[in-house]
Amino acid sequence: MRPKGSARLPPERELEERFVLAGGPGGQHVNRTESAVQLRYDVAASEFLPAPVKQRLLRLAGKRADSSGVITIEARSHRSQHRNREDARKRLAELIEQAFHRPTRRIPTRPSRTAKKKRLQGKRHRGKIKQARQKPGKDD
User: Structure pTM?
Assistant: First the structure.
């Protein structure tokens, strides 16, 4: 069950945006305009994603997700509010895209007999090299 559209963004009604003051370049203008964006997405209450994708998304979000299942993405790298808004939405879409890819399960394997033999021969060889570096003992 994949959502339609290439962006994979949840519907507008499930997203919440807040605009806040951002520091950085921009001169005095930066002190007057709210150009930084805080995009909030309540994953737990979302109807857009299937349950396994929700779990992977919260795991991928890490510290951006709080205990109630809300992901907050902050974008403040651009001077304009519009570009920061696009950046935040793009980052959320990329996170959701990653969550849709189910990780492949690792099948544990054992090293072959020749691989074990080669590894032990290498260890013996290194040991002989190191032994040759030592000072001669009383018997030598």
Answer: 0.68
